[in-house]
Amino acid sequence: DVQMTQSPSSLSASVGDRVTITCQASQDISNYVNWFQHKPGKAPKLLIYDASNLDAGVPSRFSGSGFGTEFSFTISSLQPEDVATYYCHQYDHIPQAFGQGTKLEIK
Amino acid sequence: QVQLQESGPGLVKPSQTLSLTCSVTGDSISRATYYWNWVRQPAGKGLEWIGRLYSTGRASYNPSLKSRVTMSVDTSKNHFSLNLTTLTAADTAVYFCARGIQLSIWGQGILVTVSS
């Protein structure tokens, strides 16, 4: 199985800060990575697909990059509404797998 | 606009079987060439992919649950289903259904508690 190691597990930053989350896959998964935003009581929301493509309607402050085993997700200017848990997700291999999640808070 | 909605019991006894349904509106399961997924989140924990099935009914499951999971599609009712057998407290979670290989559209989730 492909393991997704996500870091950090939690993050506290100020409004306007640049925030980066990383995900390492245990084997090459090309660019088959999504990034999700998950708020309590809500459905997870797809932000980035195929490692770097912004889903429709997602603000441009969100971005993703990476290929192979190393991936990153960035919020260029943190906003209060970005408080959530973020997950990477690989869909190259069965079983699909999520990272452990990064809980993002505002300082 | 495509929408997914989970339904089923909120409380199930240990050792019993959980049956959940995901109703799809705004699209036809039989026409769409999508994968239809189930994902769960135990309280305080992360997301776990349970499995997926194609509109033809071909399914793939997470090996961690494979012996207990069955998924099926009912094109006449435009919904797909999850059956999970031999429940334990560890199966207590919010269960989500989601569309597509990229899980681009999700239902709101349903909390299932396994308790006697």
Description of the structure:
Chain A has 107 residues and is mostly beta strands. Chain A is 0% helix and 50% strand. In chain A, the strands form 2 sheets. In chain A, strands 2, 4, 5, 6, 9, 10 and 11 form a 7-stranded mixed sheet that branches. A 4-stranded antiparallel sheet of chain A has the order 1-3-8-7, with no helix packed on it. Chain B has no helices and 11 strands. In chain B, the strands form 2 sheets. In chain B, strands 2, 4, 5, 6, 9, 10 and 11 form a 7-stranded mixed sheet that branches. Chain B is globular, with a radius of gyration of 13 Å. The N and C termini of chain B lie far apart (39 Å). Classes of the chains: A mainly beta (107), B mainly beta (116).
Keywords:
heterodimer, A: 107 residues, mainly beta, seven-stranded mixed β-sheet, globular, B: 116 residues, four-stranded antiparallel β-sheet
Average pLDDT number of chain B: 94
Per DSSP, the total helix count of chain A is: 0
Mean pLDDT score of chain A: 97
Main structural class of chain A: mainly beta
Number of strand segments of chain A: 11
Share of helix among residues of chain A? under 10%
Distance between the termini of chain B: 39 Å
Q: Kindly estimate the percentage of residues of chain B that lie in beta strands according to DSSP.
A: over 45%
Order of helices and strands of chain A: EEEEEEEEEEE
Counting H and I runs of at least 4 residues, what is the number of helices of chain B?
Answer: 0
Q: Major sheet of chain B, described briefly?
A: 7 strands, mixed
Q: How many strand units of chain B?
A: 11
What is the H/E order of chain B? EEEEEEEEEEE
The helix content of chain B, as a percent range, equals under 10%
Overall outline of chain B: globular
Compute the CA-based radius of gyration of chain A: 13 Å
Instruction: Specify which chain pair forms the largest interface.
Output: A-B, 23 and 23 residues
* Structural class by sheet pairing and helices of chain B: mainly beta
Strand content of chain A: over 45%
